[in-house]
Amino acid sequence: MNYLTLNSGTAMPSVGMGLMKLPDSPDTEALIREAISLGFRLFDTASSYKNEAELGRAIRSSGIPREEFFITSKIWNTAQRLGNTEGAFNRSLERLGLDYIDLYLIQWPVPGCYLDTWHDLEKIFFSGRARAIGVANFGIEDLTYLMSESEILPAVNQIEYHVLGGRNDLRVFCQSKGIAVQAGAPLAQGAFLDREILKTIAARHEKTVAQVGLRYLLQLGISVVPRSVRPAHLREDLDLFDFELTDEEMSTIENLREGYRCFDIPSDLTGGILL
Ligand SMILES: NC(=O)c1ccc[n+]([C@@H]2O[C@H](COP(=O)([O-])OP(=O)(O)OC[C@H]3O[C@@H](n4cnc5c(N)ncnc54)[C@H](OP(=O)(O)O)[C@@H]3O)[C@@H](O)[C@H]2O)c1
Q1: What's the gap in Å between 20 CA and the centre of ligand 1?
Q2: Atom 10 (ligand 1): residue with closest C-alpha?
Q3: Please, are residues 102 and 114 in contact by the beta-carbon 8 Å criterion?
């Protein structure tokens, strides 16, 4: 496993497992246990994914020391609107059954709220209950404003980024400021897996198209949190460190970028229920 050193000093695995859309069921707990046995240590959850409890149980039953894991969770929009950051964070801790979170993110930049939420996250960081704090889905303007009004620089911006799209200017901006970029939907939810040119590159390296798509992101310095319900795919998604794409292959992949988006800004940033 490779690691990115965050501006908080924390080491974050460059590859983790995304837990969005995995139901709160015993199957999810078993799947996470399987992922742990395959070598995953970074897990990306959120209160809105509703599987923090399953993740916590899988961690505790693994027998692996807590400090070997890197757990990310996120505050949802409703709690931001209600100014309920501390409550949301404590509910996440309780569901996870942990006494600290490695990385706590603001999931969306709720207009008019996210700066106050960030200041609450700063307090949580200073209390030691989150080892790093960051944001997700923030653009350059949001980040510039946040940075001008805050003490702590976000450690991470988790954004949509994959071979078919994602904002390159935003990636460069974040990286130039020392904010690590993490790709949400690094496989574009499967949208590029049938591209012939990627199949050719994959065959050259005796890898799969998914692995080529993830490796491309790693070579841009981006951390990835792919999601899969299949252990065979999870195994592939971790097995990214024994090959390297050439500069020419990186350029070929760059040319596939077409502004494709697989998730959009929630139409109602006010969210629904309090999570
Ligand atoms: N902060 C945010 O707002 C935000 C937004 C979106 C995502 N995220 C994070 O990013 C994570 C990943 O994004 P995502 O869940 O949208 O989708 P994704 O990881 O881009 O794609 C998931 C799809 O890829 C397939 N897949 C995974 N590994 C594969 C492999 N080796 N070969 C072939 N197919 C493979 C999966 O199918 P199988 O299950 O059949 O393998 C699944 O259909 C999320 O779970 C979440 O943690 C965050």
Answers
A1: 8
A2: 184
A3: no
Longest distance between any two alpha carbons in the chain, whole Å: 53
Structure tokens at 51: 């599987």
Q: What is the residue type of 244?
A: E
DSSP 26: H
Question: What is the block-wise mean pLDDT of the chain (275 residues), using blocks of 10 residues?
Answer: 95 98 84 98 96 96 97 95 95 98 96 95 98 97 96 97 95 98 97 97 98 98 97 98 98 94 70 47
Q: Is the pTM of this model over 0.85?
A: yes
Catalytic site includes residue 216: no
Catalytic pick among 3, 49, 100, 104: 49
Ligand 1 mutation target, pool 55, 227, 265, most atoms within 8 A of CB: 227
Q: How far is it, in rounded angstroms, from Cα 266 to Cα 9?
A: 32
Q: Are 133 and 121 in contact (CB under 8 A)?
A: yes
What is the secondary structure of 123-165 as a DSSP string? HHHHHTSEEEEEEES--HHHHHHHHHT-SS--SEEEEE-BTTB
Expressed in angstroms, the distance from the first to the final Cα of the chain is 33
Question: Fold for domain 3-254?
Answer: TIM Barrel (3.20.20)
CA distance linking residue 56 with residue 73, whole number of Å: 12
Copy the structure tokens of residue 198.
Answer: 């990627």
> Strands 11-13, 3-5: parallel, antiparallel or unpaired by DSSP?
antiparallel
Parse the chain into domains and list their residue ranges: 3-254
